[in-house]
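Repro case for the chain-ordering regression, as requested:
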Amino acid sequence: MAGAARTSSGGFRRWMERYPFLPALLILAVLLALNGFYQPRSVSLVGITGLVKTYLALMLLAVAQTYVVYAGDIDLSVGAIVSLVNCVIVVLMQYMGGTAFSALGAIGVGLAVGLACGLVNGLLVATFRLQAIVATFATSIFFTGIALYILPVAGLPAPAAFWRTYGGRFLDIPFVFYVAVVLAVILWAMARTRLVMRLLAVGDDAQRAFQSGLPVTAIRVRGYVMTGLFSALAAFCVTGDTASGDPLVGGKMTLYSVAAVVLGGTALSGGYGTVVGSVFGALIIGLINSLVYFVGTPSEWQNLVQGLAILIALMAGVVVGRRARA
Amino acid sequence: MSKFTAIALSTVAAIAVTAFSANAEDFKIGLSNGWVGSEWRTQMIDEAKAAAEAWKAKGVNVEVVVQSANVDVPGQIAHVRNFINEGVNAIIINPNSPTAFDPVFAQAKEAGILVISTDAEVSSPDALYVGIDQTAWGAAGAEWLAKTLNGKGNVVAINGVAGHPANEMRVAGYRSVFSKYPDIKVVNEVNANWDQAQGQQAMQNLLATYPDINGVWVQDGMAAGAWKSIMDAGKAGSIAATGEIRKDFIDLWIKDKLNSGASVNPPGVMASALNVAVLMLQKKELKEPATAGQYKNAMYLPIPFIDSSNVADAAKQLDGKPGYYSYTEQLSIEDAEKLFK
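-- result from build under test --
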């Protein structure tokens, strides 16, 4: 009996090592079931489509955050990058007449802006060795400043072609599901790349990575560039779901992205984690927000209960993870 | 899983049945608030709940469901989607963004839900704005200041969050007024992010830089901070500055006989919006369609103004309330009915 238990827990441990996001997946399943219990329509096709549409941006932003966290860094400017890219592409599409071609052009420019922001962060943190948390906090104010310069006040609408595509259907399947599938494939392919391995190695022990001959500075800069690129992708989703430019739209998303990373089982100290976990973490945050309302929490308590629920999800993840590793 | 689906389906069916068999005068209204940083918002929701309760006397059952938490824009879009999933009759929202809700409001309208924004205007053609005109709010304070200074003097402005639509409208409001007075010079404009402490510090800096300030145009809670700096500098007698509407400040205003005037953005706006919403749900028609404002979907409420002539009345209304309580006014059911055919 005891022996059987030991093997099964050993099996679970091996599973946990290969898939650190398992606790997050479990919590996600529980939350989905609870949401469905309290509000059946929230787990209908329309409800799930709405959930994905709303939180695709946070999922991408959580993925963005994961790449720097892999290396033990952090990026507090991801929300500001979202705002900046959002403003740049909306203004650009307006300027170019709102055609489909302008949308493609704007997406290209948006990716370049995200890349540039990531490069700035990477150079400051890795090359000039500023503390990541403060340096990226400073660049977040800087990026927001540029966004405010480009679009001083929220309100410029995005061309209908852009948000109709995002909110629409293609062969009867909501467009966002295609995005989700493409994202899954990209993440799956990315997880096997040398860059991700090296980021994890740096996060595990930067000193040892350096001594074993890895170009630590260059790797960390590349991590920030990846973060910038995925933040730009998140900005496209925000633009698709909000159909407008807003220089302050992403600001509050930054800490949610960090929370999603941690909920997904990735260690903030670096060296351990998965992007898939971060995607689940983002969905967990979304489902908690809905559940707090669907169970009928009085408005005065919603913030408190929401915070508590996130803490509980975090603790559940730690308990399951620790049992597996013990 | 199939059992679960069966349960889910039967629940849906049950909800559908209750929805159809319910009395026509039963309305469910969702209130969404995306920022909980001030007591003003809490009071706004409390007043709206009380307004819903008041409809009982008229034989109308108004159930309000509330989502109020600090959320980002996607988080508040999720509020709206939750309301759509729940099948409310109307949504009243204090929105975190003027434009970001266009697609989701279109979905709400498709689902037959009435959407009203309050406190901040939205660009959606599928929604209605019921609240004050922030431009006129800014202009009213500036008008008072210009008159108090006899159309002449050096003025500084302390603004809220740059890029925030309400802030930009208020700024446009005071600029349009001051431009009509050639002898009023706006010597500096700073942002203090609607934060009382930042307002106080900004005022300190301004007083140090410009010793000859005659007037200060400052918004909301920052006014209390700015006035503190003015009083600390011993200039309360020589400077006129706009004020704010919380009991603490109004008490101070009376006690120290401040030379102040305050445009009121009453927290009762959401209650007003709720009364309008219920009448619209009763399929009543507005005498004049709501077509005001930059988005042509606004219905502006009157903006009360407090100055030294009526500050005592304001204090009377706030008597016995806690210090953070704001002076308020709302469109009563009767007032709202007068707007309809």
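Ordering looks correct now. Chain A has one domain: 21-325.
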